[in-house]
Each structure stands twice: as C-alpha cells, then as structure tokens.
Amino acid sequence: MTDISAVDRDPPRAVPFWTALDEPRRAALRAAGRSRPYPARAPLCVQGDASDHVVVVESGWAKVTSATADGRDVVLAVRGPGDLVCESAVLGSRERSATVTALGPLRGLVVPAGRFTAFLDANPALWRLVSGTVVGRLDAADRRVRAQASARGPQRLALLLAELAALSEASEPSAAGPRARPPGGAVTIAPPLSQEELGSWMDASRETVARALNELRRRGLVETGWRRITVLDPGRLRAFAHPGP
Hints:
Helix 7 runs antiparallel to helix 10 (234-241) and helix 8 packs across helix 9. Helices cover 42% and strands 22% of the residues. The protein has helices spanning 4-7, 17-20, 23-32, 88-92, 113-122, 125-149, 153-170, 195-201, 206-218, 234-241; strands at residues 34-38, 43-45, 53-59, 62-67, 73-79, 84-85, 99-102, 106-112, 173-174, 177-178, 187-188, 222-225, 228-231. A hairpin with a 5-residue loop joins strand 4 and strand 5 (73-79). By secondary structure, it is of the alpha+beta class. A four-stranded antiparallel β-sheet has the order 1-8-3-6. The chain has a four-stranded antiparallel β-sheet with strand order 2-7-4-5. The protein folds into two domains: 17-137, Jelly Rolls (Sandwich); 152-241, Winged helix-like DNA-binding domain superfamily/Winged helix DNA-binding domain (Arc Repressor Mutant, subunit A). The protein is built from ten helices and 13 strands. The longest helix has 25 residues, at 125-149.
C-alpha cells in the first residue's frame, strides 16, 4: 500500500522572485519599470522576438508555451503572482524561446532589459537568485516528464493537478504566511486552464483529459466546473498519482 503520510506533504516550490526581494530592492525595481495591465490571452512576450524586457507578475496567471514545427502550441508551465517571466532570453542575449500569455486579466511590472540587468549588477546576489530560478524550472520540468513517462492517463493528470494545487495554495499568502489548510482540506486550482491546455501540458488529447477527470471525480478526488477544478484532498490525490507496490 502507498504510505499516504509520505505523500501528504505539498512538494516544495521555489520562492517567487518578488517575494525574495526586500522593500528597498522592490522600490528600485518599480522605479526601473512600469506597471501595466494585460487582458486575457494577451502576450507578455512572444517566441522568436528580440529580448527587450522582463515582466514580474503582480497579479493574475500566465501560461508558457512553445510552438512546434507543425504549428501546435505546447504548454510548458504556468506562472503566477511574484514570478519573473520573459527573463531567460534577456539573460542569454538571444531570441525568445517561448511565448508567455495571460490566462486571465493580469497585471505585470514591465522592466526594460537594460534596466533589469543594471538592477542585477547593482545587486550582485540577485544574479544567483535569477539563475537559480531558471535552473530550478528546468529541473522541475525534467522531474515532471520522468514522473509522467510510466503513468497512465488519470495518474498523469493527478500528478499535474497535485502540483497545481500546491502552486495555487502557495500563491495565496495571508498576513501570517501561506494560507493555512486543515489536513485533507480542499484546494481550488487558481490558474484557469482549459482541458485542452491541461492536455497539451501532459502530452495528451482533450478526450484523454476528460476521461481522466471523470475517473478522478468518480474516486472523489476532484470536483469540476467550467475552467475550475477543486482538489478535494491533495494527500489522497498524490497517493493516487504515486501508487505503491
């Protein structure tokens, strides 16, 4: 049997870039950029474009996608409040390798590339923070691919939903820190992802996602609505995603 106590802990998540800054550095970065709203489906940066800015997500959610040779957009990740996006191309001085798109209304702090690198030069310790963020994201993507390689459809979706539940919970801080949840408490996934987007992320068809959601609902692990998924018990969901011998 699966040891639920071993999987009933949310996986660790890197501290968002903005959260890691103290107030003087936040003020300096605000002065270097400008805050602007993005409507749903608006791009924050586009694959193939020149690198001329970075964005710190102030509120809302975005998806990171990459276009394949046959014209499909593959979902690679989601980013939320406090996250730094559109940064890898600026740091590597190359064309952007992915598109970042607002999933819903989003507000972001847009900082020109030159001002952002000058900000990092004035705060050398932050170079390590930014490079560590990039490496951490690559490692997380690699772990997800390896974990999903041998899982069937419902388990692959459960893996992704468990990760999104942890991400959603971490994005709702209170004055005392991250939002407290009693053991087994439900978590509504914050990024408004469609079944098609979930399928793209887990390399499955929309029909496969629909069947997997039906099984997770039947097992009492999730509730669903239009672009809304509530994980009823994250521990049980992770136990289903990681079946023991």
